[in-house]
Design goal:
single chain; 192 residues; alpha+beta; Ubiquitin-like (UB roll); Alpha-Beta Plaits; four-stranded mixed beta sheet; four-stranded antiparallel beta sheet; 8 helices; 8 strands; 27% strand
């Protein structure tokens, strides 16, 4: 784990150094490279203050097991970027450019929205589907597989069938997995 953090820290340091040098070089097209580097790291350099004050967009992307993906945007100055990375230990660096750094975290849980208002049901095509709200509202979050409704009707009670049609409320990951497990045996295979 410590080695992984060292890789992230060195990557960010290299990115920032390259970015700063590149920006200074672009700002001074007629100057030679050695002279530009000296000016960059000089404490009285106006360019160094301007570059180090640049604001990046830090994009924090989370993906959840229920198919939800959310993003949070945080502005951060270049000189605070390395410190901010310590706060996001365990996040993957997805991409970085001169203005934006995107980090990704794969959450092994349901999103807060799914926990708050998630329902399993069948869509109009007979697919087991996770909805935000009741299935009749048709706000699809995630679609899984087509259900063999004839097999399901022969195996389950009318109450269980009606529950699925009306929507089965889920509150946590255990309920989510339980529904997937229960209805997985009624999955319609391609050849059926």
């Amino acid at each position: 784990m410590k080695r992984k953090w060292m890789v992230y820290a060195s990557w960010v340091a290299a990115l920032l150094t390259g970015l700063i040098v590149g920006i200074v070089m672009m700002l001074q097209p007629g100057a030679d490279k050695q002279n530009s580097l000296t000016r960059l790291f000089s404490p009285s350099s106006e360019n160094a203050a301007r570059v180090m004050g640049n604001t990046y967009n830090l994009v924090l992307t989370r993906t959840y097991l229920c198919g939800v993906r959310d993003e949070e945007y945080k502005p951060v100055t270049a000189n605070r970027l390395a410190d901010m990375m310590a706060d996001y230990k365990g996040w993957e660096i997805v991409s970085a450019d001169a203005h934006k750094l995107i980090l990704l975290k794969r959450e092994h849980d349901l999103s807060p929205a799914c926990k708050e208002n998630g329902y399993f049901g069948l869509n109009e095509d007979g697919m087991l589907t996770l909805f935000h709200g009741l299935p009749k509202e048709q706000e699809v979050v995630q679609t899984f597989y087509r259900i063999n409704t004839a097999k399901m009707e022969a195996s389950l009670s009318k109450e269980e069938l009606e529950n699925l049609k009306q929507g089965i409320r889920i509150h946590d990951l255990a309920e989510y997995n339980s529904v997937l497990s229960t209805y997985g045996e009624f999955q319609l295979m391609e050849e059926e």
